[in-house]
Amino acid sequence: MKESPITIFRKHGGQLRMSEALSHGVTRYMLYSLRDKGIIEQVTRGVYRLTELPPLSNPDLVTVSLRFPNAVICLISALYYHNITTQIPHFVSVAVPRNSRIPSLDYPPVQAHRFNDEAYRSGIENRTIDGASVKIYAPEKTLADCFKFRNKIGMDVVLEALKLYRTRQQFNLEKLLMYAEVCRVKKIMAPYLEAML
Fold this sequence. Notes:
Strand order of the largest sheet: 1-3-2
Pfam families: AbiEi_4
Helix content: 40-55%
Largest sheet: 3 strands, antiparallel
Domain AbiEi antitoxin N-terminal: 7-51
CATH class of the largest domain: Alpha Beta
Organism: Desulfosudis oleivorans (strain DSM 6200 / JCM 39069 / Hxd3) (Desulfococcus oleovorans)
Number of strands: 8
Mean pLDDT: 87
Low-confidence stretches: none
Number of domains: 2
Protein name: AbiEi antitoxin N-terminal domain-containing protein
CATH topology of the largest domain: Beta Polymerase, domain 2
InterPro entries: AbiEi_N (IPR025159)
Shape: elongated
Oligomer: single chain
Number of helices: 11
């Protein structure tokens, strides 16, 4: 017996891309019918979720991660996720490999940054937010990235994040220096880290 579309959604955490739904035997017609009946909702273009699920706690990060699985949440968006900034992100900052297409969405607004291979691959943590897999940089990698992009985001934001990291996270000098090396900002970061010891 064929599984119902609702069962297929539930088996996959209640959320599917259209391509995934189609590959599991849910037709476009079924998707639109379920949406029109209020059983599923369209989170963003090509992404659907069951309306019975609790509301998304972080809809912007989930939406961007579902639409662009290779994008990694970075800079202010990652600082905010790790609770080491008082800044409120006005867009979702993501890192993508240097040679990849820059993601763009109508909503939420996305600011993409191209990283070289080593900087892109280093420090990625896979977190589950509202049932979706979200790639986000570790706090230490995020701080190194912020030092690298200090002219874009402001040195005051970077230094505040470093202070909050020290008080709110487990201070890990070894990791900070390792990611500073990867991001080629070790000489810039070192004096600030030494001042904290």
